[in-house]
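$ ./design --mode recover --in tokens.txt
reading tokens...
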């Protein structure tokens, strides 16, 4: 699913109106009906609804939503914030469509705000996706009052005061909704951690905008939803054998960190690899032999750390990093690996930190190597950024400069390809913010690379399936109780 910027959204609306053809008023009605259909599936008519409308097209949406909800039996109040004299044409026409059946209260001053009770639902239709400057004056005061409401707050398309595709300032006044019901496709702003309180749980509703126009519109930003994730699944043929699904090698573990080796290796085994070999220090031999009877072991001559390379010729993919530490001999081993490797590579955890401390190794990375840093690891790799939008641009430039794929982990994990395209992920939950879940991802990615998924496919699909397993684990264990091993146990597609 594509993520469009504010200008593209306006162009998409205009193209649909011209080429469907459909009037802008009827398109607004269609969008409002999509919102209402979502609404009635979530709330019953015992709830009273207060709709706050601006005087632009977002306000027009609000008026139409209020009318449609009233027709379905909801008790609805409408408040129009009079921050400007003129309303948009579609706003005016929707105001006329109320035909006196619903009372509209104008708000000229903030002290005229109604009392909002906890059993009421507040719908924010003050401002839409075209916002280009901070909210001030009466609108600012109204938004501050709405944010004090103890009931459920729902924003139409995007929270009023939030920009679609640029960073906010700390002083900006923005609605803090429990839900955002957005039209046609998600907004880039929804993917940024800094905006979590200004999006709530967001939901995309299809309003029938021109699919061909969307397909032909360039954007570097995508959202991997269920349809996109499932489309990447490769069928396992009946006459397959273990060689069909590749031979993987994982470098993992050091004294005190053998759990990382177990987690990444178990995840690899549970992700369809044909045969897995794990290279570990000698202290990990018994641990891995007992906990992973399905894996083969390559044992380093050093008792505590990994220092040497095994023969690499038989492997179709290599993963390195979980728990390996950053000792000088391990650094030398990584350097030697980068000189010799001829198969796809995934670099994570301690191996990323080695790259940060030895940036000359970055130029040795094979094309389309997958790097999977969490935000702090990425900061050590690429430098500091002032905000999440800036960090995303920094990551896009880094991926293009070094011809690598970056998996920037977090909520809506961003998979950044070598051309700068960004695929945000739809699966996963806060229960995955626990030690070892990154090691699990390394195992998943290594298995997919071994099965000859392209690095791009492996990164996007691996992140999707890793998050989906986390969602299954959370259902079984709750987000609070789940651990990384639970993610491994729920892998499968």
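writing sequence...
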């Amino acid at each position: 699913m594509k993520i469009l910027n504010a200008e593209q959204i306006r162009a998409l609306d205009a193209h649909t109106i011209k080429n469907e053809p459909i009037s802008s008023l009827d398109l607004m009605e269609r969008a409002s009906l999509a919102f209402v259909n979502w609404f009635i599936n979530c709330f019953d008519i015992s709830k009273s609804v207060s709709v706050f409308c601006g005087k632009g097209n977002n306000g027009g949406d609000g008026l139409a939503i209020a009318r449609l909800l009233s027709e379905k039996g909801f008790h609805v109040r409408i408040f129009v914030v009079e921050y400007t004299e003129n309303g948009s044409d579609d706003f005016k026409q929707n105001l006329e469509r109320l035909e006196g059946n619903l009372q509209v209260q104008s708000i000229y001053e903030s002290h005229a705000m109604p009392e909002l009770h906890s059993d009421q639902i507040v719908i924010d239709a003050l401002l839409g996706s075209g916002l280009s400057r901070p909210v001030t004056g009466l609108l600012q005061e109204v938004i501050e009052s709405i944010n004090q409401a103890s009931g459920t707050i729902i924003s139409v398309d995007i929270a009023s005061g939030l920009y679609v595709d640029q960073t906010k300032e700390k002083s900006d006044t923005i609605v803090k909704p429990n839900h955002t019901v957005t039209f046609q496709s998600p907004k880039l702003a929804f993917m940024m951690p800094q905006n979590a309180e200004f999006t709530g749980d967001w939901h995309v509703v299809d309003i029938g905008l021109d699919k061909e126009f969307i397909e032909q519109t360039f954007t570097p930003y995508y959202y991997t939803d269920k349809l996109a994730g499932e489309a990447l699944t490769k069928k396992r043929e009946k006459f397959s054998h273990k060689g069909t699904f590749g031979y993987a090698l994982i470098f993992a573990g050091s004294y005190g960190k053998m759990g990382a080796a177990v987690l990444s290796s178990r995840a690899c085994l549970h992700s369809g690899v044909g045969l897995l070999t794990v290279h570990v220090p000698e202290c990990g031999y018994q641990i891995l032999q007992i906990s992973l009877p399905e894996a083969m072991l390559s044992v380093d001559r050093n008792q505590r750390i990994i220092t040497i390379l095994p023969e690499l010729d038989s492997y179709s993919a290599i993963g390195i990093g979980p728990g390996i530490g950053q000792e000088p001999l391990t650094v030398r081993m990584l350097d030697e690996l980068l000189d010799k490797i001829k198969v796809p590579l995934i670099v994570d955890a301690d191996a990323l930190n080695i790259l940060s401390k030895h940036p000359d190794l970055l130029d040795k990375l094979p094309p389309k190597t997958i790097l999977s840093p969490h935000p702090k690891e990425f900061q050590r790799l690429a430098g500091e950024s002032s905000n999440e939008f800036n960090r995303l641009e920094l990551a896009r430039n880094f991926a293009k400069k070094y011809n690598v794929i970056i998996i920037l982990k977090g909520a809506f994990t961003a998979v950044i390809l070598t051309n700068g395209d960004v695929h945000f992920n739809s699966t996963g939950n806060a229960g995955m913010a626990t030690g070892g879940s990154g090691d699990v991802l390394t195992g998943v990615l290594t298995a997919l690379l071994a099965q000859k998924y392209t690095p791009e496919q492996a990164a996007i699909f691996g992140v999707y399936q890793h998050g989906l397993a986390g969602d299954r684990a959370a259902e079984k264990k709750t987000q609070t109780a789940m651990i990384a091993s639970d993610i491994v146990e729920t892998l499968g597609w």
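exit 0
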